[in-house]
User: What shape does this take?
Amino acid sequence: MLRTPRYQHRIELLQGTLDLLILQTLQWGPQHGYGISQAIRNTSDERLQVDTGSLYPALHRLERQKWIAASWRVSNNNQRTRVYRLTAAGRRQLASERSRWAQLSDAIAAVLNPARKVSDP
Amino acid sequence: MTPFWRRRRDEDLEEEIRTHLAMAARDRVDRGEPPDAARAATHREFGNVALTKEITREMWGWRWLERLVQDLRYGVRMARRSPGLTAVAVLSLALGIGVNSAMFTVVESILLRPLPYAAPDRLIMVYSVGSFGPITFRDGNFTEADYVEMLKLDVFSQLAAYAAYPAAVTGGGEPVRVPRTQVTPTFFTALGVAPALGRAILPSDDATAETRAAVISDAFWRRRYQADPRVLGATTVVEGIPHVIVGVMPASFNFPPKTELWTPVQIRPTYRANTSVKLLGRLRDSVSPPQALAVLQTTLTNLARARSTTGRVVERERVSLVDLRDSLVGKVRRLLLVLLGAVGCVLLIACTNVANLLLARAASRGREMAIRTSLGAARGRLVRQLLTESVLLACAGGALGLVLAYVTLPAALSWLPPDVLPRTDEIQVNGAVLVFTFVLCVATGLVFGVSPALVSSRAQTIRSSHQRVDAGSPRDSRLRGGLVIAEVALVLVLLVCAGLLLKSVWKLQHVDPGFHPDGLVTMNIALPDRIYRTVEEKRAFYERLLDRMETVRGAADVSAVTFLPFGGLLVNGDFTIEGSERCKPPSLMVDKPSVSERYFKALGIPIVRGRPFEPRDTAAAPLVAIVSETVARTCWPGEEAIGKRLTMDDPSKGRWLTVVGVAADIRQADLSRSPVPAIYVPMRQESHSFFLNAMSFVSRSGPNISSELREAVRELDPSLPVGPMQMLDDRLAGSIAEPRLRAAMLLAFGALALALALVGIHGVMSYEVVRRTAEIGIRRALGAPTAAVLRLVIGRTMRLVALGAAGGVAGALAVTRVLRTFLFGVEPFDPATFASVAGALVAVAVVASAIPARRAALVDPTVALRSE
Assistant: This one.
């Protein structure tokens, strides 16, 4: 019930990109929450560290939107883990998120480097 | 405590996070960290587990429901912690919502609910609008020929004609007079209602046959035939004609209202002499009411043109179409809406009361709110929680109110005078009422909860838990004052309305009807034409009956009259005075009662000049008449009426009556209208069968001789039904039952509102005294006399009440005009009513604040100062 505004902001800030990162990670196969955070960390050469306070809300939200589905599995060392996998809808969402991200980063790059844009043609 | 549907998921989330932490820790251990340090580092990295869970749960999407459950549970706990306050609030609301539920039940059943017929919105009454001499009428009938013409039109899928007149039913039990309706076979098919037993009236049922068909009502079937299903095929005698019972209608069928017997009506395609039938049609789906109206209007105009209208024919100038439901309930719509408004005021007052209570509690909850704010609770969240509490209170009140309404409504309805409200048999609590009540509860909770919620949640963050938090700021004091003002204003509006209606009733009761109704028992006798065929036979029977009734012990001044004042029927006719074509100006319509000799004495109607009727005025003697003062004054201004001659027939017949007396004017049907002029003729000289068909008998005696009077009739003709014996003053009282009901209802609601408001004012003042205990203590310590302290409290009450009264007077001025049609002898802006209600209200309010004032005066300065 007691919620500090700080946390809320962080989720909102990360929401779009974190969703994209999660969906992208799950493209390579089902994974549990910890595995997803480790994968993002490793593939980004340790530059991106996912805040678990944002990861789980994001996972549960994506699950509610039916982009990912969860099931319980028993891991190698006999531990019950909740494993997420990409659904067909999630795959479509990933594609559209990716193209949107590409456009966004192009646009931001253009804004950040206006000189190049003018001299180009 | 977690809702059951959440527990599983909570456990899952718990495990998911536990696994995460375990795996992260193992990775660290694998990298060579010591287990304890690894666990601690993992936790640090993960952050606030509880918060993560909290936020994750939000993603599940039913948080609002959980919050609601949480708030409701908290609300219940708060309510239980202050049972006194809760009880007062719930009771106030139960009364406020209960009267609204009850009133809405009545409004829904009467005004809103569709009639219990097939596709009732296509059913319309076809009325004629026109004039009859100087009298114009709406909702008029048509002739049988009109009906036949209208049948040819294709605007109706069914068009029924009917005529409702009471009929004598004899044979197989006590002779009775019952409401009978003669109908065309299309009557039942138009309404789309089939009999519960047997069949309806069919086209093959001849209205002129020796033995005819009859359909009876469920009530009549149970009363007279003990609900025997073998009633079908039984023969009963209606107005001397044998009828075979062919059907029994279901209990829910009540049209025209109160009818117990339906028989075929005779339709003569060329009969135009009398407008005798009402028309009920079912519009074709393809025809709109305006289209139907246009077609019918054209038809009627053409009919009128084709017919040469001469003499005393009734002119039907226009057609009007009225939705069947409106034709039944239109008359009471305004009354019901006014009453609904009144109960709305009661509820607003209850709301104000509860708002005041909650405001007072807001002060004591200031600390709680301050602590919660300090802990980071958003104001919106607090407001929502407080509003949930209010709605919870309102729903508790509403549930109790609904029970109250359910229990008291039947009692209240049985107390209603008969025939004031239509469709009372259909009044019942149904789903619509439940929905209405629930919506009302939620709305009520929000209305009375919003200001206390805003005030409570405004409490500032506290810096230390010892800091004193006082929500009783001047702003709140003003708010409380405002609520008192609103309460007083609402009560004043209600009481002024009640006052105006009461004054109208009082005036009506003090209208002099022109006769003395007290101690007169009345009885109606109707003679069927089939048995008493001639005027002479009828007169002879009445004379014998009068003689026989004279012999009843305790009967005195026995007399007979055609149309008894306040007997429910008043027939006006015209007449001609000798020497001029008509009585001018304007051509006067008069009541034409035939009376026996002692009638004037029995009713105490003064004969102003001349003489009453005497035994010498026999059929063979010169024809005489007695005129009322209005007739004498209008027809022979400045001349002596006695000795003048007039006739009620065509002057060419030469039946001239000589005026032998002038009687005082009396009111015949309506105390609120001026007397109808009358020309009395001796019963023994009456030449028109119409004026002898039915007679009312009056006897100056107690009601205890009614069985003897009944016996007297039975002795002379055992087949004659005798209607219920009624005291004439009861009939008079009955004529003002509707105004009395209006006044009583508004007074009841006004009284309820006043009681609630007084409780409220007392509560606010008590609270203010408690809040100002310290201040009063200081004043006392500084030597303020008791009178000054009393003045302090009562003065504030007076100021608030005076402001409220001013607002109320303004409100009442705006509202009372809707009552205009209900008022008699009093203007909507009657200063006396306004002044007395306002004065009384101020006085009562002062009394209500006297108790807290006295408490204030008794404040002990030392105790008061210590209370800080």
In short: The interface with chain B takes residues 1-4, 7, 11, 32-34, 38, 51-53, 56-57, 59-61, 64, 77, 79-82 of chain A (CB under 8 Å).
